[in-house]
Amino acid sequence: FPYPPPQANEPTKTLKSLVNIRKESVRFVKVPNDKPAEVEGASPQNTYNIDFTFDADAKVAITIYYFCSEEISPSGVTLVPKDSLTSGTFHYKKGYNQQFSQPTHIFNPNLFAEDDLSFNQDNTHFPVAIHCVVEESNEDCKHSHTTICVIDRHTDGTYTLRALKQKIFVDGLCYLLQEIYGIENKALNKVAIDDETDDNGSECVICMSDIRDTLILPCRHLCLCNSCADSLRYQANNCPICRAPFRALLQIKAVQKKMGSSNNYNTQSQPNNENIPNGYEVVSLIEALNGPPQYLNTSVISSPIEIDKLEDGGKL
């Protein structure tokens, strides 16, 4: 037989992040012109507040550091700012979709060299780092989330804040968060559809019928169902989206607590129930993260959804 036998599917250990900043929500907000500047030498036109949205499963303390370096130890992440340039520490309770907005904290990018506002691999300092520390975590091993940002200057003299990368520190290890491509809900803005045009962008790109649930690594395209991914391993070694060679397949299952059949909005065929906890059922990963498309019956209330298993489909 010309092909080596595939490795057995092995469930991987999942990590629970207790706090997460929504990367796309990080932004500068201009201080109104009629508001006095609280930064010495700054004019109101060049001063900004920092806003973002975050979710927390525990009480958190949030601090913003400027031009800082990062020190990682088994007990946690420490950020060391240049010239003690930091905001105060702001405390938030547990909650989802929380808004960080502190009008008293004002930053003026014009006071700093333009090279200091960008980041490159040779530079060990981050222009802006938003550090969220879980206050209820173990003192000897602080659970934290860090969003690293750069500041872009435009030709009209204005500035924008852009999130560059995100890290979490969990159980004594620091992880770089990576984006998954193809997980967005493309049907979010649809109001009404008919059966012939029912396409919310969640189908496998090969069979065009089953829900995609398998990630291609290292390009991170979520574009395959598990069946097609298993077949692809023996037919090709390129991602069907970007054509880059891939080394592994990662199946991601989302589950929710079982409800009555009349309340279940997910009418797609269910995948195999291997490694699914009792009392739970598999749902579309895209609907798990984005909620059901808006054109579905909005009177249906879905139960909380949990990302339960990550399964490694085996290296090629």
From TrEMBL:
Q: Which reaction does it catalyse?
A: S-ubiquitinyl-[E2 ubiquitin-conjugating enzyme]-L-cysteine + [acceptor protein]-L-lysine = [E2 ubiquitin-conjugating enzyme]-L-cysteine + N(6)-ubiquitinyl-[acceptor protein]-L-lysine
Residue ranges of every copy of the RING-type domain listed in the record: 204-243
| Protein EC | 2.3.2.27
Q: Gene Ontology cellular component?
A: cytoplasm
Query: Which keywords belong to this entry?
Result: Metal-binding, Transferase, Ubl conjugation pathway, Zinc, Zinc-finger
Record InterPro entries: MGRN1/RNF157-like (IPR045194), MGRN1/RNF157-like_N (IPR058981), Znf_RING (IPR001841), Znf_RING/FYVE/PHD (IPR013083)
Q: Does the keyword Transferase apply?
A: yes
Tell me the domain of life: Eukaryota
Write one Gene Ontology MF term: zinc ion binding
Instruction: Indicate the enzyme's highest-level EC class.
Output: transferase
Name a single GO biological process: protein ubiquitination
List the protein's name. Answer: RING-type E3 ubiquitin transferase
Species of provenance: Megaselia scalaris (Humpbacked fly)
